[in-house]
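Customer ticket, subject: "Can you confirm the structure for Polysaccharide deacetylase family protein?"

Message body: Hello, I'm evaluating your service for our small team and ran a test protein. I'd like someone to confirm that this is what the system normally returns, since I don't have a reference to compare against.
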Amino acid sequence: MPVLMYHQILNRPKSAYDRTPEDLRAELERLVREGYVPVTAGDYETGHIDIPAGAHPVVLTFDDSTDSQLRLGADGQPTKNSAIGVLRAVARDHPRFKARATLFVNGDAFAATGQKKALTWLKKNGFEIGNHTLDHANLAQSGTAKARAQIAEGQRSIVRDVPGTDVRSLALPYGIQPEPADLALTGSASGTAYKNRGVYLVGANPAPSPYADSFDPAAIPRIRSAPAKGKDANYSSAHWLGQLSAGKLARYTSDGDPDHVSYPKDTGARPGKTAPKGDLRPY
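Agent reply: Thanks for trying us out. I re-ran your input and got the following:
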């Protein structure tokens, strides 16, 4: 399953991690053509893949909570060339392709709009708000206590502005795991406890099915949105989407029933666990 990672969406990209609004739209249109339907990181972690039969899930993730991802205009809606503005436009043009994504935020998120206003809009409109630590800290260099505090305070900042938000997804700054790695899953600091269902790395390769034995909630790989060129071409979204569409990797395909997990009985492959509310269903 592709978990795509985006950073800034700029007319003039400043780094290899940035894309233009036109790049983003072209990649989303490709996902439409190739039968993908977005789900959130939280949906993926829990195995709640509620998309039409025959569709392939994709997780769209945005790191760092920049204004290029979400800026609300005078009408209270995302500006046209912001990441969420582009995503919603593609979804309007292709109703089966839903405007769903997970935005991993730091403190003082979406400064031009204001964190509280931006996060409130995201929650109201069905987007997942994930944690990216309070200060984008390198957790491996922070020490145990500071690493826990960065995660807990990032979560507290979100819940302070949008009470009732269930923050269960964490993207590791720089993709660097703390020591020990499971510190990112559970912990507490200054009275705030966190329990993440999924912890996300930086771009690498497609993620395993959430029902596979290889699924590791503390180290979920993501694919960096990028063209298939240069020294990192084999890590790019263009490369991996090509591999998936060519059948060189088996894509997760929905059976249309989120309460069951279907699998081909003639391959010898069997999911490592069942759906949250149902059973395994061979076909």
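A couple of notes from the result: The first strand starts at residue 3 and ends at 6. Residues 3-251 form a domain with the TIM Barrel fold (CATH 3.20.20.370). Feel free to reply with more questions.
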